[in-house]
Amino acid sequence: QVGLSAVLFNGTLKKYPRPVLRKAGDVLFPAAFAEDLLHGFYPHWTVSRKDRLVVFSAAEPGPRETPPNGKALPRQKTETPPVRDRIGFIIIDPGHGGRDPGAIGRGGLHEKKITLGVASRLEDYLKANLKGVRIVLTRRSDKFIELATRTKIANGHLRENENGVFVSIHVNASISPRISGFETYYLSQNPSNDEARATAALENNVVVLEEKSHRKSYDDIEHIEAFMLTAQIQRESALLAECIQSGIDGRITEFKSRGVRKADFFVLRGSLMPAALAEIGYITNSREAQQLTKAVYQEKMARGIGEGLVSFIKKYNRMIKN
């Protein structure tokens, strides 16, 4: 994608010093990417740089070992294990904003106000507890941001030798005022259950407020973006969701944990890093909605999410060392 320095190639996320550019109608790729691309298609050819050119030339493969029966052994394909980089930044995405109020509770309470409050407190917690990790909010005010733009903001922070985390914060809603509790999701085209499917549909409905020219893109790239999600990123996203859910559960005692679930959230599509969406409560439950407006409760919620993120980064760092 133009403007990004990260490319998903052969199921592996690779990052380059320079981004993809567009100039005079042409798309320009970094030379290092051109080398990797050519090597991927023609592993026995030689790729080198000369001045500002990438030189691509045929090379004779080395001699094969011949077994006693005289038949040549098939050439063994060697695979390079995917490179996993340290976590260098966290993107906090307060759901909704601007002309999109999100779910609306009794008395005109807007989801967008709650999510921004929790996100701001989460930023403070992470800055105090994760030195050397950049903390970025997708919005700091009552501003409308399209769903696809949110993950583009996150992907735009990817750098060589550095990975990130994307967490989107939302408040749930139900036709039943009795339902309460919190849950955390990761992206999947196979929802955990009908409730998970309904929650995703509710959050995805914001596309009706987006520019008409952008709405069709969700249909056009639905399968492409889902398949872009490598098995590695999906496993890491599931672990991220588990850590966040556990962190919230360790802090919030007033309402029950509804567990980790999976569903097809538009805001998580196309993320090139571990990504999760936290539904921190039900705005349609009067007791929970009242708590969600309180600064003390928002602080507890933010601390729970933050502790989950810190836990995930520790586990992730242990994984990349092995």
What do these coordinates show?
- The protein is of the alpha/beta class.
- It has two domains: 1-83, no CATH class; 86-321, 3-Layer(aba) Sandwich (Aminopeptidase).
- Helices cover 38% and strands 21% of the residues.
- The protein is built from nine helices and twelve strands.
- It has helices at residues 31-41, 111-129, 147-155, 194-204, 212-220, 222-228, 231-251, 286-292, 295-321, and strands at 6-9, 12-15, 21-23, 26-28, 46-50, 53-57, 86-94, 134-137, 162-172, 182-187, 257-263, 275-282.
- A six-stranded mixed sheet has the order 8-7-9-12-10-11, sandwiched between helices.
- The protein is elongated and about 70 Å long.
- It starts with 5 loop residues before the first strand and ends with a helix.
- Residues 75-82 have low confidence and may be disordered.
Short key terms for the protein model shown above:
single chain; 322 residues; alpha/beta; Aminopeptidase; 2 domains; two-stranded antiparallel sheet
What are the SSEs and their pairings?
Layout: E1 6-9, E2 12-15, E3 21-23, E4 26-28, H1 31-41, E5 46-50, E6 53-57, E7 86-94, H2 111-129, E8 134-137, H3 147-155, E9 162-172, E10 182-187, H4 194-204, H5 212-220, H6 222-228, H7 231-251, E11 257-263, E12 275-282, H8 286-292, H9 295-321
Parallel strand pairs: 7-8, 7-9, 9-12, 10-11
Antiparallel strand pairs: 1-2, 3-4, 5-6, 10-12
Short description:
With 322 residues, this protein is of the alpha/beta class.
Average of pLDDT: 80
CATH class of the largest domain: Alpha Beta
Q: How many distinct helices?
A: 9
Strand order of the largest sheet: 8-7-9-12-10-11
Strand content: 15-25%
Helix content: 25-40%
State the domain count: 2
Shape summary: elongated
- Contiguous low-pLDDT stretches (5 residues minimum) are 75-82
Structural class: alpha/beta
Task: Please give the radius of gyration in angstroms.
Answer: 23 Å
CATH superfamily heading of the largest domain = Zn-dependent exopeptidases
- Count of strand segments: 12
Instruction: Give the topology string: H per helix, E per strand.
Output: EEEEHEEEHEHEEHHHHEEHH
For the record, the CATH architecture of the largest domain stands as 3-Layer(aba) Sandwich
Largest sheet: 6 strands, mixed
* Span of the ends, CA to CA: 31 Å
